[in-house]
Amino acid sequence: MSFLTILAEVVAVVAAMVALAAVGIVGADRLRRLRRTARLRLRAVAPQLAVLAVVLLVNSAIRDVVPEFSWIIGWNITGYIFALEGTFVAFVQSFASPPLTAYFSFVYVYGYVFLLVFPLLAYAALDDARPLRELVIAYSLNYGLGLLCYVLFIAYGPRNLLSDLVESLLYTTYPRYQLLTSRVNTNTNVFPSLHTSLSITVAMLAWLSRDQYPKWTAIATFGALSVVIATMYLGIHWATDVLAGLLLSAASVALARRWVGDGSWRS
């Protein structure tokens, strides 16, 4: 199975999830209004989207050379993380079972992408532009600050350091996903957990917009918590990475809310 085949599978599954959520959460009236005003709303959030696009392009362009810069700086914090939390991830994996592995693998690959994509549509359909602007800026901050941490710190995941105690459950159970994740991850880039920071960012912003989308608030919260657990259950991240991701999400949301202007689509 090729990378493109896996990518097409993820796109198809996430697109189906977004379509179902759009009907059940956003609603027909908002979707019709969005269709009529999509061009205006896209222009209104274009500066924020441009910043996010630049951050993602930079991330993609330098991802392969980030480990080289990290080794030049030489701040290997893996030992400190292990000294701090020991075999906690191995304890989490002690509860492993085939159904849990299937669930957390689905959440890590498909649920995570859904969490990031759906609110872009949902907030674009609101009359207030502020939630979408905050979301896009918070994404940019997560990726930008996360990339800076990856440059500064060398950190191997528990599946690498504790290979005799922690199993790489995602890849041993579903090896095809390694074709996908290897394009965006390296073994030394686990601190902080961007899966955690971005998912919790979505959940925090969902709570702030809970009056408009109460169903989404519940789904985003449950989904984000599932992603957080999945990162450790699958042996990919330490609890320390998760904690750092929580702090990163809180900082990103706070800064995004401070920087965003009014809620007009014409501003």
Strand order in the largest sheet: 1-2
Oligomer designation: single chain
Proportion in helices: over 70%
Q: What's the total count of β strands? A: 2
Shape: globular
- Class per helix and strand makeup: mainly alpha
Strand content: under 5%
Radius of gyration: 19 Å
Q: State the helix count.
A: 14
Major beta-sheet overview:
2 strands, parallel
- Poorly predicted spans: none
State the end-to-end distance.
Answer: 47 Å
- Taken together, the total number of domains comes to 1
Q: What series of H and E elements makes up the topology?
A: HHHHEHHHHEHHHHHH
Mean pLDDT comes to 91
Q: How would you characterize this protein structure?
A:
By secondary structure, this protein is an all-alpha fold. It has one domain. The protein contains 14 helices and two strands. The chain has helices at 3-26, 28-44, 46-62, 66-73, 78-85, 88-93, 98-124, 130-152, 158-161, 169-173, 178-181, 194-208, 214-233, 239-259, and strands spanning 75-76, 153-154. A two-stranded parallel ribbon has the order 1-2. Helix 3 (46-62) runs parallel beside helix 8 (130-152) and helix 12 packs antiparallel against helix 13 (214-233). The longest helix is centred in the middle third of the chain and has 27 residues, at 98-124. The termini are far apart. 37% of the residues are buried. The mean pLDDT is 91.
